[in-house]
Amino acid sequence: MKKIIVFVAMCVLLCSCASSAIHKTNANLMRLKTGMSQDEAMTIMGPPTLSERYDAADGNQVSILYYRTERKETTVLSAKDECTPVVFTNGKLVGWGDRLTAADINLLKVKTK
Question: Where are the beta strands (DSSP E) in 18-109?
């Protein structure tokens, strides 16, 4: 019985920690400003959950940092579904969110490195 109580307490603690981290990430997104450097943004946001880097057809470099902003039932293959992308062109923040990312990638005709 004691092991069950400890197990339940650990589960509750882990869930509340994940929820707190997601809340903090969402709050940090509100502190970002377009035009800031990638280093400045990472100082605010911390390390990303996932990241991608592309060379655009016009020579620009596009970096996309993904930060976990919600909790869903996902697998490793669908982890991006829980994340908000933060997009940089040539090291400068151009914006964040799914619509911006899709538009930037299509507009720049990005090819994978």
Answer: 50-56, 61-68, 83-89, 92-96
Reading the block at residue 84, the tokens are: 């908000």
pLDDT, averaged per 10 consecutive residues of the chain (113 residues), comes to 53 49 85 95 94 86 90 64 90 85 58 50
- Burial environment of residue 2 by CB neighbours within 10 A (0 to 12, 13 to 18, 19 or more): exposed
Q: How far apart are alpha carbons 38 and 40 in whole angstroms? A: 5
Which residues, including other chains, have CB under 8 Å from residue 41's CB and lie 6 or more apart?
32, 65, 86, 88, 93
> Residue 35 has what DSSP assignment?
T
Contact 88, 45 (CB under 8 A): no
pTM for the model: 0.70
Domains of the chain with CATH codes: 2-112 (3.30.1450.10)
